[in-house]
Amino acid sequence: AVNVQLARCRNVPELRTVKHFHDHPGYIEALKQSVLAHWARHGALREAGGRLVMSFHGVPRRTLDLGDPYHCECRKTGRLLAESLGLAKDEYVVTFQSRFGKAEWLQPYTASSPSSRASARPSGCSRTPRRPCMRWAARAWRGST
Are strands 92-97 and 133-137 parallel, antiparallel or unpaired? Predict the structure, then answer.
């Protein structure tokens, strides 16, 4: 689709493609700054006694079974972000949202996560190219991942 549009241009811009950015230090730093800005406005995780819910756009489980790296990349992004924020494993969770149809989708589902239900409403959402939504659980985590 991009090449079709470029073929119509008289003055084609220089383009570079990036195969992976899920673990790029600049991307992780941008996510970190977004979370820190949210915490500065609404209170930090430890102060609220909650858990950071990193909710990524869901895709059917079949894509993982066929070898698509998206699931692993989301998990790695979550782990790297948590490490950059100094969070312990029990202070964050990676979930997946936006499922429809009867097929199984990547899990855990955001809507089924105890951390998501504990929060009366999302108190912050950060839109990024990979579309993770950073949601804040204002109450203590009750349960396991």
Answer: unpaired
State residue 24's pLDDT score: 94
Between 108 and 141, name the one with better pLDDT: 108
Per-residue pLDDT for 113 more than 70?
Answer: no
Q: Which amino acid is at 103?
A: A
Instruction: Give the closest residue to 110 by CA, choosing from 128, 87, 137.
Output: 137
* Contacts of range 71-80, beta carbons closer than 8 Å, 24 or more positions apart: 71/106, 73/20, 73/22, 73/23, 74/22, 74/106, 74/130, 74/132, 76/22, 76/23, 77/22, 77/23, 77/27, 77/28, 77/31, 77/130, 77/132, 78/54, 78/132, 80/23, 80/28
The model's pTM is 0.70
Domain boundaries, the chain: 22-137
Say which CATH class 22-137 falls into: alpha beta
Alpha carbon distance 47, 61 (integer Å): 36
pLDDT bracket for residue 98 (50, 70, 90):
confident
Contact by Cβ (8 Å): 21, 73: no
